Structure formats: C-alpha cells, structure tokens
Amino acid sequence: MNIYELRLKDDFVKKLSDDGRRWLAQAIVNLLIMDGKLDPTEMSYMKDAVVLVNDSEREELLEYAKKGRKFDLPKLTTDRENAPEILYYFASLIGADNRISVKEAEFFKTICSKLGYTEHIAKEALQWTFALINLHKKRTDLEKSAAKSLDPTIT
Questions:
Q1: CATH code that applies to domain 10-150
Q2: Which of 16, 93, 130, 138 has the fewest C-beta atoms under 10 angstroms from its C-beta?
Q3: Cα separation, 82 vs 114, whole angstroms
C-alpha cells in the first residue's frame, strides 16, 4: 500500500499556458487509456488531467477516457521551459505500478518526441525510471524486513 501519490503541484500548473495545460491533460488521458480503458486505480491521475482544463474541455477529456479514445497530440510548442518537468512526470507515471510495459515505453518515447526530445533523452529517462522502480522494490523489501523485525508473525 502506498501512503502517497504522484500529483501535479498547483504552482507548476499555474506556470503552464492554456495550450500547455490542454496538451498535458490530453497526454495524461492517452496514457491512462493505453490499454483501452480507464483503470479505477488511475483515478488520481485522471483528476490531475481534468483540473488542467476548462469545463467544456473537461467534458471532452472525460468522454475520450470513457470511450477509450486517444487524442492526436501535436508537438508541444509552448511551455518549452517546463518540458523537463513534464518529461519526468511521465517517466514517473509509467513506472508508478513498478513495471513498464512495452506499450508504456513506446508511449513514453512518443511523448518525448512530442516534447522535442531525442530518442537518446527518452532512453536516459527510461533508465532513470527503471532505477526508480528498483529502488522502490528495495524499499518494499526493507519495509517487510523491518516489519518482521518488530513482529515475526507479519508476512
């Protein structure tokens, strides 16, 4: 069980242009429906997406998510100064469940390209995500070990 979740900070969102917020919201929806449906465990990320846009755009986001439709994302031409944070937000999102599918890796490479990054940067960011996943697995093992040291009946 996680006691925290990955969220977009308000001060970051406020820095984005309307076009940047719309692009980010659509990219989040595309990631969340990658397998054709919106998983209930991903609702906190969907909340991040819907607060980025106005009411009419919100309805469109929800409609696309419900139907499993993907947005045709253009290259992000605004908010270039925020591209590194967006890059690592998506790197963190795809590794949030402690595994990265081939589809997720391909999606991430597409996002990197839409942000203007090279394939080399995409690979480096994916390596960072794999390292983060390994650290999380190690932390989980340490938590189990620490719990057992307090109570040997804990499995």
A1: 1.10.3680
A2: 138
A3: 13
